[in-house]
């Protein structure tokens, strides 16, 4: 399901270019550097979207992805920076990868400690180290597609 969902999400973003923004995508080398910095591999659906867009948003739903800017030089921004900052400053667990802000003071994370048979990670909302995770989806591709389809319809 997630593999199909990620390709449908790419099509959705391309089909709604007027309400979407994205970067140029990231190379395998850049994604590998991001994974090494985090100490965890990206699940296939998230990896594919980062390869395609780097970072992206559509109809108000903004995904952190992975990217660099001239102002920050070689520093990996997006998911890498936000994840490392939350680990350092707020006790985010090492197996979690930040992929979005939830708009209410929390973040949306992928939990690499719970890998399914396709190599995908479930999606959770994280608010604070002392609060339980709230499960939002079985995998990133399906979660992101549903969220973006809803946003486009509204």
CATH class category name: Alpha Beta
Q: What's the gyration radius in Å?
A: 14 Å
N to C succession of SSEs: HEHHEEEEHEEEEH
β content, as a range? 15-25%
Helix content: 25-40%
- What is the CATH superfamily label? SMI1/KNR4-like
Termini separation (Å)?
Answer: 24 Å
Strands of the largest sheet, in order across it?
A: 6-7-8-9
Largest sheet: 4 strands, antiparallel
Structural class: alpha+beta
Number of DSSP E strands: 9
Give the uncertain stretches in residue-range form.
none
Overall outline: globular
Number of helix segments? 5
Pfam families: SUKH_5
Domain Knr4/Smi1-like: 25-146
Protein name: Cell wall assembly/cell proliferation coordinating protein, KNR4-like protein
InterPro entries: Knr4/Smi1-like_dom (IPR018958), Knr4/Smi1-like_sf (IPR037883)
């Amino acid at each position: 399901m997630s593999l199909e969902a990620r390709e449908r999400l790419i099509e959705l973003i391309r089909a709604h270019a007027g309400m979407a923004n994205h970067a140029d995508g990231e190379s395998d080398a850049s994604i590998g550097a991001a994974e090494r910095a985090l100490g965890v591999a990206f699940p296939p659906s998230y990896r594919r979207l980062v390869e395609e867009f780097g970072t992206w948003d559509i109809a108000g739903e903004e995904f952190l992805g992975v990217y660099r800017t001239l102002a920050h030089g070689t520093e990996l921004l997006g998911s890498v920076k936000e994840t490392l900052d939350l680990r350092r400053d707020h006790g985010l667990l090492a197996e979690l990868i930040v992929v979005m802000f939830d708009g209410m003071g929390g973040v949306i994370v992928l939990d690499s400690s719970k890998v399914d048979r396709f190599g995908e990670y479930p999606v959770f909302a994280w608010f604070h180290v002392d609060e339980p995770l709230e499960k939002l989806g079985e995998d990133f591709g399906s979660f992101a597609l549903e969220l973006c389809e809803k946003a486009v319809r509204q």
